[in-house]
Specification:
It is a single chain. By secondary structure, the protein is α/β, with parallel strands linked by helices. The protein has a single domain, classed as TIM Barrel (Alpha-Beta Barrel). Helices cover 41% and strands 15% of the residues. It is built from 15 helices and 14 strands. The termini are close together. Bound molecules: 5-hydroxymethyl-3,4-dihydroxypiperidine.
Length: 455
């Protein structure tokens, strides 16, 4: 079979996050997601993360699965309330111990840990003080980052400060579909600023504590395509790109918040004409701290046909003309070329020294068949075609260093609860049995060959 080889040293990994897999809720502090899950109707199936995949109890088995797959790296997040149950002050030794043991286990299995410090599970006690709308939360994050870096930094070199600040701010604080579930446009923009600011502040702290640290941030990016050539669609495309992509990319890469977006927000009376009040002198410089890599989470493109403000419900951005067979069960269009487009765009427009795809994957519910296999052909095709586009981007000069499949395990998919399965490993939530899906077997081959089938 003809294959396309990846460069030597290319990192093949899988990703998860604490709240989505860990369970063991009694042995940590509460997060905003625990509270959000208790809100009637907030989670599609009424579930929560209290048990999830019981990863805290089963991590040794899970690392063994990773080894079986031949993973070179594993990206996981640290639960802030497991380390600091009330967000600051008294730390939990057993909480830190868990991550110690996980890291040791990974290293013993030859798997490089990539640690994400914040994947949305803010300690509830900090939310009571205003959460991310308060600047003090950004300060608390830096203290927390320091604690984790001090503890794991002798063994962990790769650090991601934040996962998808767009989702944490806009979906959590404006759309209200995620924790903390508020609907406040200015609050969402303020949150985005404090998330980015805490990133900027934490990077030098991590570097100071971790020898040879590589520190970055993960953004969820999506190509924006106008539905037609009509000027209103073109204008809307630019605005949505500004809101979704440039609002985060520009400040991280030293350009400050995009002027056209600030003007747009001011015209809609979301922010004053003088700018976002939360931005103090020096903040944009802090956010622009050089990073060692940018992490990109890619799932789909958005086809824009409306200018609804500031962020439309996701549905308005999907391509309604894509046939159902070409969507995942999240309803997201399967559009592998968008990964290439995103990587090339970021490379040309922002020139980060290195890039990782820190998440890519698909929700399909295919379960075990009678012979025991899990024939998730659609996910396998999804991964194959996206790997091919990553390869194409590398050929076009993009410094892509690695790829993390989302997700290692089926897990708690936020407001969708357990209705969506993104894992390459099937999880039976009753028995906690794990089973490699066909996509995992395919991935094992790709990793072993460091190559993807050409067709
Ligand atoms: O499950 C999420 C993950 O937590 C962040 N990125 C997108 C995934 C799928 O929705």
């Amino acid at each position: 079979m003809k294959t396309r080889a990846f460069p030597g040293g290319f990192v093949w990994g899988a990703a998860t996050s604490a709240f989505q897999i860990e369970g063991a809720a009694d042995s940590r502090g509460e997060s905003i997601w625990d509270e959000f899950c208790r809100r009637p109707g907030a989670i599609e199936d009424g579930s929560d993360g209290r048990r999830a995949c019981e990863h805290v109890q089963r991590f040794e088995h899970d690392v063994a699965l990773m080894r079986e797959l031949g993973l070179g790296a594993y990206r996981f997040s640290v639960s802030w309330p497991r380390v600091l149950p009330t967000g600051r002050g008294q730390l939990s030794e057993p909480g830190l111990d868990f991550y110690d043991r996980l890291v040791d286990r990974l290293l013993a299995a030859g798997i490089t840990p990539f640690v994400t410090l914040y994947h949305w599970d803010l300690p509830l006690a900090l939310q009571r003080e205003g959460g991310w709308t308060a600047r003090s939360t950004a300060e608390a994050f830096v203290d927390y980052a320091r604690i984790v870096a001090k503890r794991l930094g002798d063994r962990v070199r790769h650090w991601v400060t934040h996962n998808e600040p767009r989702v944490a701010s806009m979906v959590g604080h404006h759309l209200g579909r995620h924790a903390p579930g508020t609907q406040d446009a200015l609050g969402a923009l303020t949150t985005s600023h404090h998330l980015l600011l805490s990133h900027g502040w934490a990077v030098p702290e991590i570097r100071a504590l971790v020898p040879k640290a590589e520190v970055g941030i993960t953004l969820d990016l999506a190509p924006m395509h106008a539905a037609t050539a009509a000027s209103e669609h073109q204008k809307a495309r630019r605005l949505h790109d500004g809101h979704f992509n440039r609002w985060f990319l520009d400040p991280v890469f030293g350009r400050g918040y995009p002027r056209d977006m600030l003007r747009h927000f001011a015209e809609r009376e979301v922010v004053p004409a003088s700018g976002l009040p939360a931005v103090l002198p020096g903040d944009e410089d802090a956010i622009a701290v050089p990073i060692d890599f940018l992490g990109i989470n890619y799932y789909r493109r958005n086809v824009v046909r409306t200018e609804s403000f500031p962020e439309p419900e996701d549905e308005e951005l999907w391509d309604p003309s894509a046939p159902l067979s070409e969507r995942t069960e999240m309803g997201w269009e399967v559009y592998p070329e968008g990964l290439w487009e995103t990587l090339v765009r970021v490379h040309l427009d922002y020139a980060p020294s290195a890039l990782y795809v820190t998440e890519n994957g698909a929700s399909y519910s295919t379960g075990p068949s009678e012979d025991g296999s899990v024939p998730d052909v659609l996910r396998l095709d999804f991964l194959r075609t996206h790997f091919q586009q990553a390869h194409r981007a590398i050929e076009d000069g993009v410094p892509l260093r690695g790829y993390f499949v989302w997700s290692l395990l089926d897990n708690f998919e936020w407001d969708r609860g357990y209705t969506q399965r993104f894992g390459i490993v099937w999880v039976d939530y009753e028995t906690q049995e794990r089973r490699l899906k066909d996509s995992a077997l395919f991935y094992r081959r790709v990793i072993a060959d460091n190559a993807v089938p050409a067709e």
